Here is the input.
Amino acid sequence: MRIVFMGTPEFAVPSLRLLIEQGYNVVAAVSQPDRPKGRKRVLTPPPLKEAALAFGLPVLQPERMRSPEAVAAIAELQPDLIVTAAYGQILPKALLEIPRLGCINVHGSLLPRYRGGAPIQRSIINGESVTGVTIMYMAEGLDTGDMISRVEVPITDEDTSGTLFEKLSAAGAELLGRTMPSIIAGEVQAEQQRDELATYAPNLTRDDERIDWNKSAISIYNQIRGLSPMAGAFTYLNGEVFKVWLSAKPNGSNGSGSTAPGTVVAVSASGIEVQTGDGILTLLEIQPSGKRVMTVADWLPGARLSAGAVFGGGEA
Here is the structure.
């Protein structure tokens, strides 16, 4: 059986590795094109490409999977099955119809909840206590195909999107290993999704990263966790971007009802206490404009920050 594997970020690598290690005939990998990264904008291959090349697989990187040329390139590989995991593009109908066993996707949520491109980040941002992985047949819609198998994964208070990515990528690979035999044998009893229960997880925007201090402390705490360690949540201090990478879980302290949200109420080596719309939030790891990520204790000796300072606003 010939398999084409499609994926882009680190999330996809364990699933590809499992297929290789279990002896499946993966004939090629497909990934997004190399992109510039970092301040120097160095052209960098995606993690899936690097892993595929290490396994000795040919790699295709079409800019647009919907182009006739990209579909034709996949068709030439004569796949019996296409497996995707966080590939990053919606596959056209012409491609979905190529493999005789269909196209399956390893999706990082418990469908039909959190359809879309950022299910892991948004499950934390929204304060969920459990998420999971669903393996599904791919359809033309956005994560609307019939579900084949799924597994639940708890979200702890310490989880960030980074730690949850690791948990779900491992859980997805293990689930794929258990699901593949039934797919190959044609014994799958897929379950149709209930569209009325669907929620969506669109890709994150700059607005999603900006802290609104009028929200509750627990809401901002979840936002910070859900954006770390990728984009990071940000606010402004003296007109400059000020990123927040880690905060303490709120303890229920409401602060002063007369203090405006975003106001610093206390500063010490143990953290910066900020008034929110409901409660006090303590910032632990921060990144002032033009500086590296650091603890508040490391930053304070050279900083000029005291109670009464205000986070928020915009660029000066």
